[in-house]
Amino acid sequence: MLKQYIFILSLLITFTVFGLTAQRYIGFFRMTRPAFRVRDIGRRFGIMMEVALGQTKIFRRPVLGLLHALVFWGFCVILIGSIEMVIDGVSGTEKALSFLGVVYDVIMASGDVFALVIAVAILVFLSRRLFLHVKRFSGIEMKHISHLDANIALTLILLLMISLLGMNTFYIRAGLEAGKELQGIYPVSSLLAARLSTGLNTDLLIHGICWWSHILLIFIFANYLPYSKHFHVFMSVPNVFLSRLEPLGKVDIMENITREVKIMMDPEQAFASPPEGVEQAGSSEQAVPERFGILDVEDVSWKSYLDSLSCTECGRCTAACPANITGKKLSPRKIIMDVRARMREKGPGLVKNGREFTDGKSLIRDYVSPEELWACTLCNACAQECPININHPALILGMRRYLVMEESAAPGELNAMFSNIENNGAPWQFSQEDRLLWAENITMNVTE
Ligand code: SF4
Ligand code: SF4
Fold first, then answer.
1. Where are the alpha helices (DSSP H) in 92-143?
2. CA dist., res. 170 & res. 219, Å (int)
3. Is residue 170 scored above 80 in pLDDT?
4. CA distance 330 to 322
5. How many alpha carbons lie under 13 Å from residue 446 in its C-beta half-sphere?
6. Closest ligand by atom to 142 CA
7. pLDDT tens digits, one per residue of 50-90
8. Is the dihedral of CA 128, 130, 136, 142 positive or negative?
9. pTM for the full predicted model
C-alpha cells in the first residue's frame, strides 16, 4: 500500500509539472497568428504514416536512418509497457496487461529486444557527438547548451533502456526462484538472467530498484523533454500531420494585399466577394493586418511556432542550404531555433501583458539579421530535407515582407526593381513606350 501511495504522489507531481508546462505553451500559442484551417484529414494522415511513423525522410541516410527509426519504433512499443507500469503502480497489480495473452507476449518480447537495440543506437549517437566532429552538429546556432542538452537527453534514454532491461532480467530471476509463473516473453533479458547469479532476496530488491528507477526516469524525462530539443519526441508526429500540403515552391500570397492591388487595377473588383478567409474591406478591423510580415515572435503563425518546437536540431536543413554551403551567413536551422528562443524570452511577457508588450528587442535584428534573410534563394531545399516537414521559407519570407512593406528596407537592387515596376510596369528601367526600341532595326531589315 505504501508503494501505491508513493507512486500516486510521484504521478501527481509529474502531471502537475507537466500541466504547468502545457499551460505555458498554450499561452505562447495563443500569442501567435492564425495559419490555415486543418482540412484534408485523410491526406494528412497518409503523410503522417509515411513521414513520421514510416520515417521515410530519415532513411535517406540508410545506416543512421535505420538506427533512428529503430529508436522511434522501439519507443512506440515500449510506451505500452510504460502505460502498464503506471496501471500497476496506481492499482497495486503486477503485469496488469497480461490478460492480453499472446499479444502481451509479442509486446513484451519486442519491447525487450527494442530496449537492447535502442541502447546500442544511443551509444552510437553519443559516440558520434562526443568523439566525431560531425559538421552537421556545428554552426553558430549550436551553442554549448545545445550539445549539453542533446547529451543529457541521450543519456536519459540510455538509462531508461538499462533500467528496463534490468527490470525484466530481475523479474525473470526473482520469479523463477520463487516458482512463480512468468507473464510475457523476454528474449534478451532471459539470456541476461541465465548469466547472472544472485540470491532470491537480492533479485527481488534489484527488480524493485530497477522498476522504480525506470518509472521515475520516465517521469523526469517527460518533464525534461518540453525544455529540450528532444521535445520532438512529442511534437514531430503532430507537426508532420499538420505539414504544408501545397507544393514546396508555392509562395503564399497575402490575400488582403492582392485584393487591394486588384481593386487598384480594376475598381469593379471592390464589389466582388472576397476570397475565403479575407474580410470585405471596411467590414472589420481584421481587413487591415496589424502588421505586414513578421517583426517579432507574436507575428509568427501557430504553425511556424509548432515547427520551432518540433525541430530536432539535426542540421539536415542547413547541410542542404545552398546559401550556407557557399559561405553565406544564413542557416535555416538557426532561423527555426531563433523563433523558439525568442518565444522563450518574450512569451511570458506577452502572456502577462498582451500582444502590445515590448521588451525593446525583436526577432529581426536581435536574433535574425537582414543579411541572413536576404541570403535565402527560397529554393526550399531545407524544407525538402527536413525529416519532420518544417517550413523554413515561410518564416524567412514573412520577415522579408516586414522589411519591405513596413521599413522599405529591401536591398538596393530590389528597391530599384520595385520602383521600375511601379513606374514602368516592368522590372527594367525603360518606359513602356521604349520597350520595342530594340526591335526597330530588325523590323527595318525585314521590310527591306
Ligand atoms: S530556401 Fe533559403 S534557407 Fe532554405 S535551403 Fe534554400 S536558400 Fe537555404
Ligand atoms: S529544421 Fe528540420 S532539418 Fe533543420 S535542424 Fe530542425 S529538424 Fe533538422
1. 102-131
2. 22
3. yes
4. 9
5. 5
6. 2
7. 888 888 888 878 888 888 888 888 888 899 989 999 999 99
8. positive
9. 0.83
Question: Ligand 2 centroid to 311 CA: how many Å?
Answer: 5
Q: Which of 243, 244, 311, 396 to mutate to test the pocket of ligand 2 (most atoms within 8 A of CB)?
A: 311
Nearest to 6 by CA among 265, 272, 208: 208
| Residue 218 region by backbone torsions, left for phi larger than 0, else alpha for psi between -120 and 50, else beta | alpha
Ligand nearest to the CA of 393: 1
Q: What is the structure's pLDDT at 393?
A: 94
Which of 55-59, 254-258, 344-348, 429-433 is the most confident on average?
A: 344-348
> Which of 107, 95, 104 lies closest to 175, judged by CA?
95
CB 289 within 8 A of CB 33: no
Q: Give per-residue pLDDT as tens, 359-401.
A: 999 999 999 999 999 999 999 999 999 999 999 999 999 999 9
CA–centroid distance, 271 to ligand 2, in Å, is 44
The best mutation among 307, 325, 380 to test binding of ligand 1, ranked by most ligand atoms within 8 Å of the C-beta, falls on: 380
Instruction: Provide the grid cell at 173.
Output: 530471476
CB of 310 sitting under 6 A from ligand 2: no
Joined together, the cell numbers standing for residue 271 give 464589389
Instruction: Answer whether residue 274 shows pLDDT above 70.
Output: no
**Range 423-442 burial, b when 16+ CB lie within 10 A, else e:** ebeeeeeeeeeeeeeeeeee
315 C-alpha to center of ligand 2: Å?
5
